[in-house]
Design a protein that fits this description.
Elements: H1 4-7, H2 10-32, H3 36-56, H4 65-83, H5 113-128, H6 131-141, H7 147-153, H8 159-186
Length: about 190
């Protein structure tokens, strides 16, 4: 897959920009009802924010490519919202490999070994899921994206398709988790 610097240089960078431009600009224009020019500005500002995050170390090389895309989409969204005056500061996910969700505080479980093992297992299983599943689960439970937002970002035909796909992905995650836990418990 290559490291982040590899992805963000030369031909790979050109392809990344081309691919993401086709997704992000129409999504921002449609979702936030702004002219294409404003969405393009947010896209450009999002690229700057992404490069700053990579250079400053806020976005680490060991993170997966799907994390780069999610991170970049969030950068673009936040840049547009800042421009529209809807948020004061950037709220960008810090570590896509953590399975933190709204009210689920991983740090509160540090003393409980079983919970820590379950979290590690969940992270391992999530990493093995297909890229779209990881993006759906991460987008919903970490970034808090709506079904409509996820459908637009991942090129689904509708929010219902995104919800159905998310439910299937969650079922895969649950089944793999339960099967693996059962095998560990038998040992």
């Amino acid at each position: 897959m290559g490291d982040i610097n590899d992805i963000l240089s030369g031909k790979k960078l050109e392809q990344f920009i081309k691919d993401e431009r086709e997704k992000v600009i129409p999504y921002l224009s449609k979702r936030y009802r702004v002219p294409t020019e404003e969405a393009e500005d947010a896209f450009q500002d999002g690229l700057v924010a992404l490069f700053e995050a990579v250079n400053s170390g806020r976005f680490k090389e060991e993170q997966h490519e799907y994390s780069l895309v999610r991170y970049f989409h969030t950068c673009c969204k936040n840049q547009l919202l800042k421009k529209l005056g809807k948020i004061e500061k950037e709220t960008i996910p810090s570590d896509p490999d953590e399975l933190g969700t709204g009210d689920y505080d991983i740090s509160a479980l540090e003393d409980d070994n079983q919970h820590n093992e379950d979290i590690e297992l969940m992270q391992d299983i999530l990493a093995d899921l297909p890229k779209k599943c990881r993006s759906l689960i991460w987008g919903k439970y970490h970034d808090g994206f709506s079904a409509t937002e996820m459908a637009a970002m991942l090129n689904y035909n509708s929010d219902r398709v995104a919800i159905t796909s998310l439910n299937r992905c969650m079922e895969k995650l649950r089944n793999r988790f339960n099967e693996t836990r059962r095998l560990y418990d038998e040992k």
